[in-house]
Write a structure and sequence with these properties.
Pfam families: Radical_SAM (PF04055), TRAM (PF01938), UPF0004 (PF00919). By secondary structure, the protein is an alpha/beta fold. The protein contains 14 helices and 18 strands.
């Protein structure tokens, strides 16, 4: 019996997928890359983006046609709105929330009879028993890179975002479990570990009497790194600017294993638009955090998220975002064209910015990003950087990897034994989004 699993959306769904694979393989199924060979096919959906939901409908339409000539069970889970769950009831054999993953074998045995009332009852208590899900040992997709979930859900309710409605309110995972999983990964030789959550730097705030908060969690990882002594890089995503404290930055600066790369979503450079987005932070708060990062961790790279064409965004407001891009010298920005999502507050508002204008602003901001990222990459030339080798590059004879700051690097080598190792590379040339260098032995 074979299975195939597709994870759409963010890194959280990818991490969830590792635990789904564990449960399925414990049932005796084996993985296949070819979905046509599978007897069980699952998809971890993402209601946050329309194109991800469109892909779900495309996939299930094809799979249901296969049922005319093959024995096939389909399931869907992930980051899904109640309204999408209702529609999926007619299309998939099994629908479940991630907290119910330990019950998947029984669902498959019973062939997954799910009712609308059962789904709604589940959404009324989305994070009940989430600890049972966290206790599932993940089948890590990589031998040297891993995701470690530290919380689930979000309390911010940004007007453009559906996550609070798909994953519920914030619930923090016990820090003892997090540190135990990180320790196990480091002792097994993992080089890159990412703490995951919808808002990682509010970790522990839902359990003020029993749990540490995020700076202390990072400090515990830092002490673990000092204790074990082997080289690894610890990342986290995604933080929220409102909760980004100076203490978090101070702890990162203090410990070698805490990666000097920070992803801090801005979304817009205009304060009025940030209010409309319900971001609960202004440009000045963001500026203060970046100033502290530059002062305490001058070598750190800075990544962000930007939305263009949000409802009501004027030319003046877009230009404010362009100014912010230049001011903060981002190494990378994940730029998204605004798309209303059912369930999010802004879905009720008229989408006043045309698709053509969104595309134009996306292109303009991408060109702005190329200037800031290229400037940093050019400054790398002639210097030596530690690089985690992740695999073969697109060009024959080259390997590719990432610096600690997550800058893409390629170098001439066919030694695949280096994959998963951290090596020294001297940079000799640069482009807007990558650099090339020579391997140093």
């Amino acid at each position: 019996m074979k299975y195939h699993l597709i994870s759409l959306g963010c890194q959280m769904n990818a991490s969830d997928g590792e635990r789904v694979r564990t449960v399925i393989e414990q049932m005796g199924y084996t993985w296949t890359e070819d979905e046509k060979e599978a007897n069980l096919i699952g998809i971890l959906a993402c209601s946050v983006r329309q194109n991800a939901i469109d892909k779900v409908y495309s996939k299930i339409s094809k799979w249901n046609k296969w049922k005319n000539h093959t024995n096939l069970i389909t399931f869907v889970s992930g980051c899904v709105l109640p309204s999408d769950h209702e529609k999926f009831l007619k299309l998939f054999d099994i629908i479940f929330q991630m907290k119910d993953l330990p019950n998947l074998p029984e669902m498959i045995h019973q062939y997954g009879i799910t009712t609308p009332s059962g789904i709604q009852n589940g959404f009324d208590a989305q994070n009940d028993n989430i600890s049972e899900f966290w206790n599932v040992k993940p089948d890590y997709a990589s031998d040297f890179e891993a995701f470690v979930p530290i919380q689930n859900g979000c309390d911010k309710f940004c007007s453009f975002c559906a996550v609070p409605y798909t994953r519920g309110r914030e619930v923090s995972r016990p820090s003892t479990e997090i540190i135990s999983e990180v320790r196990s990964l480091v002792e097994r030789g993992y080089k890159s570990i990412t703490l995951l959550g919808q808002n990682v730097n509010s970790y522990g705030l839902d359990k003020p009497d029993t749990e540490v908060i995020f700076p202390e969690l990072l400090r515990q990882v830092g002490e673990l790194g000092n204790e074990i002594g082997t080289e690894f890089w610890l990342y986290f995503t995604s933080p929220h600017p409102r909760d980004m404290s100076d203490e978090v930055i101070e702890v990162i600066a203090q410990y070698k294993c805490l990666a000097k790369q920070i992803h801090l979503p801005l979304q817009s450079g205009d304060d009025k638009l940030l209010i409309a987005m319900n971001r609960k932070h202004g440009l000045e708060k963001y500026r203060q955090s970046v100033s502290t990062i530059r002062r305490l961790i001058p070598e750190a790279t800075l990544f962000t998220d930007i939305i263009v064409g949000f409802t009501g965004e004027s030319d003046e407001q877009f230009n404010a975002t362009r100014a912010a891009m230049k001011e903060f010298d981002f190494n990378m920005a994940y730029i998204a064209k605004y798309s209303p999502r059912p369930g999010a507050l802004s879905h009720r508002w008229f989408d006043s910015v045309s698709l053509d204008i969104k595309k134009e602003r996306h292109q303009i901001l991408t060109q702005d990003l190329k200037l800031t990222s290229r400037s940093y990459n050019d400054s790398m030339i002639g210097k030596t950087f530690r690089v985690l080798v992740r695999g073969a590059a697109k060009h024959d004879g080259y390997l590719a990897g990432l610096t600690e700051g997550k800058i893409n690097v390629r170098f001439l080598s066919e030694n695949t034994d280096l994959i998963g190792q951290i090596v020294d590379v001297k940079i000799k040339s640069a482009t807007a989004f990558s650099v090339e260098g020579d391997l140093l032995y």
